[in-house]
Specification:
The structure holds two protein chains of two kinds. Chain A is mostly helical. Chain A has helices spanning 2-6, 12-37, 41-50, 52-60, 65-83, 91-111, 116-125, 133-152, 154-162, 164-169, 174-215, 219-244, 248-266, 272-275. In chain A, α2 (12-37) runs parallel beside α8, α7 crosses α11 (174-215) and α12 (219-244) packs across α13 (248-266). Chain A has a single domain, classed as ABC transporter involved in vitamin B12 uptake, BtuC, CATH 1.10.3470.10. Chain A has 14 helices and no strands. Chain A is globular and about 60 Å long. The longest helix of chain A is centred in the C-terminal third of the chain and has 42 residues, at 174-215. By secondary structure, chain B is α/β, with parallel strands linked by helices. Chain B is built from eight helices and 13 strands. In chain B, the strands form three sheets. In chain B, strands 6-7-8-3-9-10 form a six-stranded mixed sheet, with helices on both faces. A four-stranded antiparallel sheet of chain B has the order 2-1-4-5, covered by helices on one side. The relative contact order of chain B is 0.18. The chains are: A mainly alpha, B alpha/beta. At the A-B interface, α9, α10 and α12 of A face β6 and α2 of B.
Chain lengths: 278, 271
């Protein structure tokens, strides 16, 4: 068993991939708590696809894909906030428009690249084993930034998520906080780009947090449990990917989904099978 | 006009306020003053702008015209001095918070950005819960509670804000007797602490017996003052229009009840 666990770690790229998978698992799961509670699953999905043009432009300009994705994600996050400001459009309508436009633009740009097939696969499904040392530092740095901001705004995010009326009464800057949350979500999606790809980061945002919501009754324990599930999914997914020779992003998301199903069916008192036990 | 225009600085000073809501004028040219520690019942037919007035006071709706002063300063200047109980809490009851978490939110206005609630904040929250008779529910998830208990949690939260001005929108509509009782006790307690209270209600009996001042509203201010002066036939007729019936023995019946979608019946009466 020990050798089974240690064997992949003799390769440095595996070790880097493993660390990246755990960081991304934690980040997505913590931000995912807000995604699940605020009903922003669609937003997470849209955000992930919307960074495609940024990646494509960065690729065409031979710049850093990470930076391209980052810029695109922040632009999309702020645009969604802008179009839905003051109820001009419903938020999901704004998301739908921008999501489709950005995805089309991204695909159009990528299709103009001659040898796009391999790169597109990496963008869509992640390339965890190609994490460079610099990527890892960037991932870790953004991770600290995101978790630090969530910790610093814990009270404020709780109030604007649970009770916007109280937020207004307390004169909290609700709109700037909403934008901040969108930007944090965008950063999280960008960080997860390399690990699970744009196609699957929405799943990592939603699934561990949804599982945690079945197991906990308060916000910070929900975040904590979600983070542990996310980290475990990242870890287990990578080993599955190594031994079964499947794409790492799929392996991670399938692990998270398997945990969700187990909890949904077997959780004490509320689980489907608990209710139907003989 | 008892208490309405005293010389001491008014706690709440509403000057020529108009509010637009859904492309109509929900409130027009409202001017009145509420002195320190007063207890005001706001009555009027459905759509009179009672909820709108509260929403403007807490900053949920913008003013079209006029100004609102609290302690002589513009609205928003005193971050923690207004507490508000909406007519119906529009929150996700499955949200993972306990009763204690919710009540502690009332203390957030007093805390610095990064500060966590202190032991003193917890003590205030526990005391507020005890006062609303739900101390034993502190650790329960908010979604496990009955409707009346949930309302008492939000009253406890408003109490934990230690407000100078307490706004309650229809706190007696659609709740159980225990909650009504707890709310009435709370009113007395707030009176002792010199908290200014504004309550909207459909219950004209309650307005005339438990309040020092009544504000009769129908988009404009119809009358403002002691219950005996305000709740007169001619004023009620101006406020309620055709939903008013004067019987032969002089009883005035008001057939105005219940915001749409609520099935409880409150035929208010005033003799």
């Amino acid at each position: 068993m020990m050798t089974w666990l240690l064997e992949p770690l003799q390769y440095e790229f595996m070790l880097r991939g493993l660390i990246a998978a755990v960081i991304v698992g934690v980040l997505c799961s913590v931000m995912g708590t807000y995604v699940v509670l605020r009903g922003m699953a669609f937003l997470g999905d849209a955000m992930a696809h919307a960074i495609l043009p940024g990646v494509a432009i960065a690729y065409l300009l031979q710049g850093n894909l990470f930076v391209g994705a980052l810029v695109a994600a922040v632009v999309i996050a702020l645009s969604i906030g802008f179009f839905s400001r003051g109820g001009a459009l419903r938020e999901d309508t704004a998301i739908g428009i921008l999501f489709a436009a950005a995805l089309s633009l991204g695909v159009a740009l990528i299709s103009s690249i001659q040898t796009y097939a391999v790169d597109l696969t990496h963008i869509l499904f992640g390339n965890l084993l190609g994490v460079s040392r610099a990527d890892l530092w960037l991932t870790a740095g953004l991770g600290v930034l995101i978790l630090g901001t969530v910790a610093a705004c814990y009270k404020q995010f709780l109030v604007i998520s649970f009770d916007p009326v109280l937020a207004a009464t307390l004169r909290l800057p609700a709109e700037p906080l909403r934008y901040l949350m969108l930007v944090l979500l965008a950063l999280t999606v960008v960080v997860s780009l390399q690990t699970v790809g744009v196609g699957l980061s929405a799943a990592l945002l939603v699934t561990p947090a949804a599982t945690a919501s079945l197991l906990t009754r308060r916000l910070w324990p929900m975040m904590f449990v979600s983070a542990i599930l996310g980290a475990f999914s990242g870890l287990a997914g990578l080993y599955l990917s190594y031994y079964l020779n499947i794409v790492s992003g799929s392996a991670i998301v399938l692990t998270a989904t398997a945990i969700f199903l187990l909890v949904f069916l077997f959780q004490p008192h509320k689980g489907l099978l608990w209710k139907h036990r003989p | 006009m008892q208490k309405a225009f005293t010389t001491e600085p008014a706690r709440l000073d509403i000057k020529n306020v108009s509010v637009a809501y859904n492309a109509t004028m929900a409130l027009r040219e409202l001017t009145f003053q509420v002195p320190h520690g007063a207890r005001v019942a706001i009555v009027g037919p459905n759509g009179a702008g009672k909820s709108t007035l509260f929403k403007v006071l807490v900053g949920l709706l913008p003013l079209a015209e006029g100004e609102i002063l609290i302690h002589g300063s513009p609205l928003g200047h005193h971050q923690d001095c207004v507490a508000y109980l909406p007519q119906r809490e529009d929150v996700d009851w499955r949200f993972p918070v306990t009763v204690m978490d919710v009540v502690l939110m009332g203390r957030y206005g007093r805390l610095k950005w990064l500060a966590r609630p202190t032991r003193a904040d917890r003590a205030v929250a526990s005391h507020s819960l005890a006062q609303m008779g739900i101390a034993e529910l502190a650790d329960r998830p908010i979604g496990d509670l009955s409707g009346g208990q949930q309302q008492r949690v939000f009253l406890a939260r408003a109490l934990a804000q230690e407000p100078h001005i307490f706004l309650m929108d229809e706190p007696f509509t659609g709740v159980d007797a225990t909650t009504q009782e707890a709310t009435l006790l709370l009113l007395d307690h707030l009176h002792e602490r010199q908290v200014t209270v504004l309550i909207s209600t459909h219950d004209l009996n309650l307005a005339s017996t438990r309040f020092s001042t009544v504000l009769l509203l129908n988009r404009r201010l119809i009358a403002y003052g002691a219950p005996g002066e305000v709740l007169r036939q001619e004023n009620l007729a101006r406020a309620f229009g055709s939903s008013l019936l004067v019987t032969q023995d002089g009883t005035i019946l008001v057939d105005d009840c219940c915001p749409p979608g609520e099935d409880n019946d409150h035929g208010g009466q005033a003799g």
